[in-house]
Structure formats: C-alpha cells, structure tokens
Amino acid sequence: MKNEGGGGSGVASAVKPTNFALLSEGCVSYILSQTSPRDVGRASSISRGFKCFANSDAVWERFLPADYLEIIARSVSPVVYSSKKELYFRLCDSPILLDDGNLSFYLNKRNGKKCFMLGAHALSIAWQDTLVFWRWRSLTESRFSKVAELLAVCWLEIKGNFRTKMLTSATSYAAYLVYKIGEISHGLDFTGKTLVRHVGGDDDDDDVAKTTVYLKPPKTGGGLQDGCRDGEVVMMMGGGPQRRVDGWMEIELGRFYNGENEIDDEVKMCFMETRELHWKSGLIVEGIDIRAID
Q1: Cross-strand bridge partners of residue 211
Q2: d(CA 269, CA 8)
C-alpha cells in the first residue's frame, strides 16, 4: 500500500509520542531502577512523563539496601517517611543512631551504598577509663551522646573493629578518624601512623594500608581545606586533616575492599603515636567513619 502524506514522516511523528505511553509502569520503573539516583533525578527534570515514575516507591526501593528495614528497625528513634524516595534522602542527609546509640548509619547519596560511623564509646582507646588521661563529655555538634576528650597521655592509640557483612558487597571503603582539636592543646602537631587490615591477616598483606598522618597540620602557613558534599574533600597535603561539612575534621586511616562473597570478615582500623611518647592533650574524638568511596 502506498504511503501518502510525505513519505511516512507523518506516521513516524505520530508514533513517537505514543511509544512511551505503551510502556507499563512496571517496565519504566525497572528501567529507571537500573540507573542511579542522580540519573533518575535528571530524567524527571527533563520529562514530565518520567516524573511520576521517577518518584515511585518501586524505583527508590531498588536504591535502598536490601536489609534497610532491618537497619531502620534498630534505630534508637522512629524513622518517619512517607515514600521510599523520602526515606532514601533521609538516610543520606540525616544519619540515624542504631542499637545503643554508639553506631551511626547513613547512605552514600550517589549510589545508596551503606556507610557507618563508630562512636568513640565503640572504640578501644588506650587508657580511656582512666580519668586523669581521658574524660567523656557531651557536645551539641556531635551525633553521639558522648565524645572522648584527651586530657594527657604519652601513648596515644585508638582502635576500631567492624564486621564487613554489614557493609555493601563489592565496594571499596575508606576509614576516617573524626575529631576536633580543643581550644587548648599540646603535642598534637606530630606524625602518627595508621593501619587498616582484615583481622587475621598479616600486616604485610596487600590489603594493609599504612600511612603517616598529621592530626594537626605543621606550621607552614596553610590552612585546612573545606570539605564538599557527600564526604568528598580536597586534600591539603598527603596525610593531612580535612574539614568535614559537619564542622569536624578527619584524617584517612586507610582503605579496604569488601568483596562479593558472603563471608563475615572483620576489619581493624587504628591510629597510633607510640614512638615519640611526648605528652599530648586537647584531642576530641567523635569516632571512626567507614565510608564507601565508589
């Protein structure tokens, strides 16, 4: 049959607008859920047709961890949300406290990967229960009820352990010591050593990350670099502190890879200054942040 009216261009223009409408809600939702939260946001902003699908629970539930219901059930306070999209951004922007309040949980906004922060009370700090060396205090700017303040020690060692089964599989992570320097401090402009490794492994294994770091930058005239959103920061110097969006400072302790298997491994993270043994004071420890970096 002869196609009239301009060689078929009219038919093509008539079909194009109906192709999207022929797709079922489930089909469109599935396609969107295979992208990323950022891609979904872009799609909804450029197409009114996509917007209703881009806000659906079916899409945003795919961006949430498979065990998100179990995690939010452990929250110390109710997690209120009206949609899965709202819950996703709630967990990205407002970390929740779990269990006894010494563990914080949040999501990487770019990809929904699980991140945790161990509060100071969940760490092993040398001499932490000796009142002449450390004291526990409350700070309004901390997510935790208590932080550890260093009064005076020579041997400074801060350790944390974490079960990898709680993290997102097939993901690279970095561990950061989160802290502040008090108005009065002493002996913190030294180099310390860090260690991140799988428990049971040898310190010379490939998964070990050792670095030399500064809690307080040397007096070179430079200042701290401001952080940006989602925990991304600009390095001032190798092993130097960076300022976080929440006002605290952090130094990277090291990195590790959480594989695809279901083995429940354990990762050890450590900061130490045990060589010079000079007196130190004024360090305020909030915790260790375990953050997905890919």
Answers
A1: 194
A2: 67
| pLDDT, tens only, 185-242 | 998 988 899 999 888 655 445 445 468 888 987 665 444 444 333 333 333 334 689 9
Angle 120-135-284 (CA atoms, 0-180°, nearest 5)? 55
pTM of the model: 0.80
The H-or-E segment that residue 11 falls in is helix 9-22
3-state secondary structure of 154: coil
- Over 31-89, what HEC string results? HHHCCCHHHHHHHHHHCHHHHHHHCCHHHHHHHCCCCHHHHHHCECCCCCCCCHHHHHH
| Amino acid, single-letter form, for residue 186 | H
Question: 41 falls in which pLDDT band (50, 70, 90)?
Answer: low
Q: Is the pLDDT of residue 11 over 60?
A: no
- What average pLDDT score do residues 37-48 get? 64
pLDDT at 119 over 80: yes
Token readout for 117 is 């922060």
How far apart are alpha carbons 36 and 71 in whole angstroms? 22
Residues 265, 162: Cα–Cα separation, whole Å: 8
Single out the residue of 91, 55, 86 nearest to residue 72, CA to CA.
91
**210: alpha, beta or left? (left if phi > 0; alpha if psi -120 to 50):** beta
Transcribe 85-108 into DSSP letters.
Answer: HHHHHHHHHS-EEETTTTEEEEE-
